Amino acid sequence: MMILSQDFIFKTMEVLFYIFLACLAFPIIYIVVSLLIGFVVGIIYKIFYTQIGPTCGYYGLVYAIGKVKDINLKQEVRRIIKCSIDEDKSYVGEIFEINKLSEIAEKYFPDIDTSIKTFNGIEELDELLKNHYLVYPVLRKSLFGKLGDTPHYYFIEEAKKGKYIYKTEIFKIRLTKKKSEMVEENVNLKQLDYFCWNCYYKKKRSLFVSIAYYIADWNLYSFLNKQYKDKKKVLLNQYSKIDMAGKALAIRKKKL
Questions:
Q1: Residues 231-248: pLDDT tens digits?
Q2: Which one, of 74, 72, 108, lies nearest residue 89 by Cα?
Q3: pTM to 2 decimals?
Q4: Could you read off the pLDDT of 135-154 as tens digits, one per residue?
Q5: For the chain, where are the E strands, in sequence order?
Q6: Cα separation of 182 and 186, whole Å?
Q7: In degrees rounded to 5, what are phi and psi of residue 255?
Q8: Alpha-carbon Rg of the chain, whole angstroms?
Q9: 3-252: CATH homologous superfamily?
Q10: For residues 250 and 206, what is the distance between their CA atoms, to the nearest angstrom?
Q11: Where along the chain do its domains lie?
């Protein structure tokens, strides 16, 4: 299994970002590059099956469940995303309250031992990981150090020396992060009480990201894109409560 450092991922993203900025000065080149990058990234996403849209909580949950139960990851992600959105547990794939993620886990995987765990610091997090996989909420910083405005979920597999091994976005690739940084990213959530949907809809989607998502999973992205457009008028003036700091959804590991 491949393990990449966070620094390597961020440096790669930074290079791609500057290429993107250079293309802005030449619209035709931007379109061509977007098509090429979108196609290449889409194929990579399809092979490694990455997160599609704002659905990190679902992906983290399904990949954690997949460690203790033999399931078709792709089918299960599609199933619980579509069903829970149809049942109004989520608007467009987001989950900003750990209680809601727990309810989804209990409904769609009733035979799996899942529970909400609280923690305070590295030692308590290490203790949890001895017997559990964690779907772990965070608030990340951008490449330039600015705190983000949208919560995210990781799937933490284990603690190893001074780092945690986890997955995010491209869930077939294992990453590492310093324990202190991982805890800090959860603590950052204390600075957010509500999520602003108006801010969310102001962010423009890049052409290459849309192309990549369509190639990776046309079925799921088409569904999510429809939800995104259909609910825009309703969500523009709404705020969603955020309740995730100091908490994680735990999936008990199988006994050896």
A1: 999 999 899 999 999 999
A2: 108
A3: 0.85
A4: 999 999 887 788 888 999 99
A5: 3-5, 114-118, 132-138, 152-160, 163-167, 174-178, 194-196, 239-241, 247-252
A6: 7
A7: -75, 135
A8: 18
A9: Cysteine proteinases (3.90.70.10)
A10: 34
A11: 3-252
